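quick one, four chains, predict together pls
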Amino acid sequence: MCGIIGVFNHPEASNISYLGLYALQHRGQESGGIISTDGNEFYSHKAMGLVSDIFPKETIDRLKGNLAIGHVRYSTTGASLLNNSQPFLINYAHGTLVVAHNGNLVNAEEIKHDLVSKGAIFQSSMDTEVIMHLIAQYPEESLIERIAYALKRVSGAYSLLFMTHDRLITARDPHGIRPLVLGRLGDSWVVASETCVFDLIEAEFVREVEPGEILVISKKGLKSYHPFPPRKPANCIFEHIYFARPDSVLFGDTVYEIRKELGRVLAREHPVEADIVIPVPDSGIPAAIGYAQELNLPWEMGLIRNHYVGRTFIEPSQSIRHFGVKIKLNAVRSVLEGKRVVVIDDSIVRGTTSRKIIKMIRAAGAREIHVRISSPPTDFPCYYGIDTPTRMELIASSHSVEDIRRYITADSLGYVTARALNDAVDANHSFCDACFTGKYPIRFPGIESGQPRQPTLF
Amino acid sequence: MCGIIGVFNHPEASNISYLGLYALQHRGQESGGIISTDGNEFYSHKAMGLVSDIFPKETIDRLKGNLAIGHVRYSTTGASLLNNSQPFLINYAHGTLVVAHNGNLVNAEEIKHDLVSKGAIFQSSMDTEVIMHLIAQYPEESLIERIAYALKRVSGAYSLLFMTHDRLITARDPHGIRPLVLGRLGDSWVVASETCVFDLIEAEFVREVEPGEILVISKKGLKSYHPFPPRKPANCIFEHIYFARPDSVLFGDTVYEIRKELGRVLAREHPVEADIVIPVPDSGIPAAIGYAQELNLPWEMGLIRNHYVGRTFIEPSQSIRHFGVKIKLNAVRSVLEGKRVVVIDDSIVRGTTSRKIIKMIRAAGAREIHVRISSPPTDFPCYYGIDTPTRMELIASSHSVEDIRRYITADSLGYVTARALNDAVDANHSFCDACFTGKYPIRFPGIESGQPRQPTLF
Amino acid sequence: MCGIIGVFNHPEASNISYLGLYALQHRGQESGGIISTDGNEFYSHKAMGLVSDIFPKETIDRLKGNLAIGHVRYSTTGASLLNNSQPFLINYAHGTLVVAHNGNLVNAEEIKHDLVSKGAIFQSSMDTEVIMHLIAQYPEESLIERIAYALKRVSGAYSLLFMTHDRLITARDPHGIRPLVLGRLGDSWVVASETCVFDLIEAEFVREVEPGEILVISKKGLKSYHPFPPRKPANCIFEHIYFARPDSVLFGDTVYEIRKELGRVLAREHPVEADIVIPVPDSGIPAAIGYAQELNLPWEMGLIRNHYVGRTFIEPSQSIRHFGVKIKLNAVRSVLEGKRVVVIDDSIVRGTTSRKIIKMIRAAGAREIHVRISSPPTDFPCYYGIDTPTRMELIASSHSVEDIRRYITADSLGYVTARALNDAVDANHSFCDACFTGKYPIRFPGIESGQPRQPTLF
Amino acid sequence: MCGIIGVFNHPEASNISYLGLYALQHRGQESGGIISTDGNEFYSHKAMGLVSDIFPKETIDRLKGNLAIGHVRYSTTGASLLNNSQPFLINYAHGTLVVAHNGNLVNAEEIKHDLVSKGAIFQSSMDTEVIMHLIAQYPEESLIERIAYALKRVSGAYSLLFMTHDRLITARDPHGIRPLVLGRLGDSWVVASETCVFDLIEAEFVREVEPGEILVISKKGLKSYHPFPPRKPANCIFEHIYFARPDSVLFGDTVYEIRKELGRVLAREHPVEADIVIPVPDSGIPAAIGYAQELNLPWEMGLIRNHYVGRTFIEPSQSIRHFGVKIKLNAVRSVLEGKRVVVIDDSIVRGTTSRKIIKMIRAAGAREIHVRISSPPTDFPCYYGIDTPTRMELIASSHSVEDIRRYITADSLGYVTARALNDAVDANHSFCDACFTGKYPIRFPGIESGQPRQPTLF
């Protein structure tokens, strides 16, 4: 997953971008980058690590200009990590173009195959590079037409920021899968993945960038293009369930409230006699509140999170094993001992973490452990940008709820149903819930919609 | 403040120490160090930064041996920071001695003056160095007698770990101000500042190191000495209120439970008609639970904490100002809008942070804001190891509760009373609450107890 | 300037590459990189800095496989330095291709213009990227034909190493401007910029890669292609005069001997009555020996070089100024005092360094200072890879020898003549001496040979 | 070995110190440090590495004040390297005292034993710490008397710089073993190990700090003390032969000239029929010049030195072995092939390096190899600061010249005789040549002069 920010017409554009990335750090902790321009030169810094570590003041000072875009990224490990970090800068026939991308294309491989067969060279394994090739190849003068052409060729999820020496251009796929919002900060415009950025920099939220919109921000003001035929929106439901920050307003609703409502729904669908409700912190907290409120049960913090978890944890080789979740969470015996405990989590992926958490809670003296998940079983992988494992590894894709309960050693296990999930989220919206239903809104190349296959990623 | 750990007879002593420091990181984020011994050589690594950053695997591998002690430290900035980091190693008449210290001495300056007048040289500004000089100078063969002599000379708070090439010796001041606990891990012994270490490394909690005890751990087993006349215990109440981790068992009670109970007490002392209770995360959470439960009010997470706050935050110079607390916390409008909100925090120091938090909550639409503090007003500085500011800077030392309320712009403000605080904590214990009452349990040199002055620190 | 090395079929290919780069460090101190392959994956490390600093053992260990190429690079500062570092890896229609390049193309801009007009995108400012695009675009299956096509399109100086998952391919421009040599190390093949690499790794020198040759090294052995019409060789004379290491055998001659012979020639052309001959170390040493031997004068080390010159020298801001050459060189008074001194240097570029050296020698008491330069006046810039300044900055391009003498404050000044230079170097060779004569062997696009213009570099 | 510099009354004292250390880098490459004072605070930076790497501009800027001392150090590896780096700062009865030390004490262990038996603690393994204890313990108000007392107690070689908040105090042992010179830079005073510092910073050489002198530099000017009874000087002859920079004026003579004269002496004592003389660079160059001039033979650079030798060279594990000297030096075949070669080196320690060099020269085609050493056989270890190995490892202490010749595989081998060495150096001086003669000028504790034993170093 990734987080993006673009700043137009601000004297400290790179510093605002830095703050924005900092507020979006939860969307990607592996690498970060900012490219700025003073209308003449382009200034770039990309590095592996957390935003607060990789952008010392001297670096920010070096990133001059009123226009900047930034990017944070999480990805599985690969051979040439820094090569794949963004923003991504190219020189092409019409000058310099910079891009930052959140999302994932489903037909990148096909287009790439086509491009390389015609002689294109690729220097990264990012699907974003495919978009840049398409933009560069289209025989039109206008950048907007080139971008529109490129985006018509690709399928998938994308929230995009382009930067030239004097324009900030943002685009969102016709389904609006990943979030993208527009804000105003005095005379400056800011585009970001989530509204929590605006809270931090004290910008005013203006509106979402619309699904299928290409929005050009220049000295002449804002100009909006809608080159695509309208599609049914398919906002990613998993942003609400897990990914986004709870204080963000996403697709029109506060994430926190959706999560709390899912807790209520869960309580109605899977009530249980219990002494206490505890969340798996931090993402499980709002749902735990909703669940507890609905059943009038007390809720407490029975699991304490260590805030200093580093990225490189060294596990002792000989004598201590399987730290796993212990390095992040600890159970509070006095809260749990002798209690019937409801544990609220947002999802179960492979099941191994849940199993360890339950073991820890039971070791702390819990009498009964009832696991409640504030989403339906995750049966299908996401091809639109969330790094879920393949179906093979998703425990829910091949096991019944009872199987999973036994594996994680819970006394009971309940998920929100897909129907209840749909009722819980705003009726005016239409979400992508393919990870629960397998109903993928975007076709894979050569396949009918709704019949996904695992694309071979390059 | 500091955190310490000692490991005896473990094949991966330095790795266990590393894990222990990791669990104690909340006690000091500025620098960390581990010194180990294989019975022959001593191996040392000390550096500025977080434990997970400064101990790469190669470094841990280099710290050989079955015996190790570690230290994490927070301190205000100074000229030669690394010089002051611990553990601290000396060579003296009887070989090598290593020490790690949590606490603060009140007569270090006087003893230091005496020592230097006799020709001693000091290479750091740590009061720990005073103890080492006293140990080295006492004309006795036995290290235990030397340590006992040194500790009889010093006054103040200390939880100490000493290491020779074959022994781990731990000592705690007669008042037991700072915590110190003994655990067992198979055939190994572990001594640490808090029990959360034992949870992580799966050691068994054995008992507290007793106030006034010197405990020697060697191949021959454990041997305990009590060289001091018994004193009335004076466990630091502020460890319970703020400093320790909520999952630790401290002075016989779980921190989490004490905090929750303080919330209940607070509710009884300062009830208010409200719609919602919110904590200032993370330390205010248990008290918020207690407060809400007592008054049967809902509690929610109206403030979201950013978990990626780096140590060096760059504030934009020109256009954005006074980020202060915003970089750490954000208010959730949907939770707060139109509500009468009770905000639970553990203490008010200078008042500036509270003022910013309240401004943020009000900007998010709260109708009324009632601040409740789960401790009495902090009138007096701590001389026993907690880095509170001087009285001059403590807002409560010179302002009435009403003054403070006005300053922080709350609609109402209530503190737990000192009496209620005492009732809330275990009746069997006797705490140091000097920061609230000014009743300092340990005399300053030349002054009567209870009449503190600000010691000149060297 | 750059240095390159390729290693085929060696179990420690990346380590041999590291050693090779280390021996070639004089060809580029700014950045270094190695890419290796085990036939399956490609492993890469590139960084700014000296080879001995940027390749710790763990990094070398990570660069697995029997096949590797390495690159060191010097370049003027630019916006995105690391982006421009080599080796350079692309994915294209036929898999992965890695390249390392020493030299400079003169028609890269024209080809690039053509490529981008057809939609190509460029991610660096290296002319090497042009070659990669041409290779990728040519509609032929065979990589050799693709490479041949690409090299026929480009003009300029290039010694190239290509690597696929199982082949090492090396190519040299038809004029053979930059050096490139082939060596054997047991069952392995090594290709490198200079023979000093073979001395270090104890490889056997086999032969030069021939001008215009494309040499393919694979499991099947060596296969040589000569796709270009034969051209008159034009080996860079400045490699002999300054750039290459004196212990290398270059274009058939030992650099040291050529330099010494130039000293002899210089002595014959510009003898002087003097007490002592001193070189500007280290490049001036062999010419000083030749000069001294020819005139039967003593030669000594009147200038001492500091071997610890770092890349970032901090000049005091207030009181000490214009360190310039003093940080690198110091004059030995006892050698120089009262003497008539001949100072031998290889070239004068801007004249500022010579002026400072002469000032230093005179301050050390020299009675007369006669400067002798072991090459003709540098009138013209190099477009084939040596980072000489533009004509505007070359003092010799706009000033007479007498003007230069006055500027550098020498008592006399003599250069080797172009004719004598030609006589001095092996008669069987034909060199490029365009920097002295302006006779550029390779035409610039659209211009007749011998009428150079300053190409606009992108 | 170490290098030291002190700067008094200069607005950029730390920057001048940095430049001084840079010029003294040959005296110690392992660690460096500077401590400065503005009369109030002390500012310190010490780190492992080369001066040009460990003092970035920000660090120099942080080291404020008009008064500073610096230190570079070479030492064999140890457990706690940074702990042992200098300058060394203590707080004692009379404030703060900083010291930098070049040399080695012979009775430090005895005094340390005495000090620790009285209760002193040691935090490093530096003998300098002994001096600081003695200064702190002496019951006198005056710092000069304290220093005099301490220096009367210790025996050995020391060139010392002390710094208080307002004074720079320098002292040299009564034998004047290590060099120490005083210079003037405008209104500032500079004290340094060698005069090459003055050349760089453009200071004027005033005089040597005299053997046995304590020189106090304060706002009141210079004040000199001579608390010791006069001793026969014993300047270290090995500074001239190997250690000092050739451009330094040492003990009244230019190092370069002494070395050249030793070459002449060597030629007279061990002439040989040969075609060419080559030095082992760089220390052997002046002696090679002298040797060649005396016999009227040509001298050339038959061995080329790689200037980019890093401190951490990674030797390939499997296939290439015993790089040793090859990574630093390469032989030039064209210079050596078929020749009778005289190789001039300054000394032979273990013999292993010489053996490798000769092997390399022979492999380059030399017909005969005659090794000439510009000093007598190194029979005895140095206890006064030069890190020669113990007698056990010194090949000359247990082998005849003929044995050594055979071991290093030379055709002939000649050393300068001790008598000729004495004649060669200035007759007005009296040198310590204990490494050649075993006549140690300073007694070891409890032993008669001239009968050395290996002191146990702590």
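Residues 2-234 of chain D form a domain with the Glutamine Phosphoribosylpyrophosphate, subunit 1, domain 1 fold (CATH 3.60.20.10).
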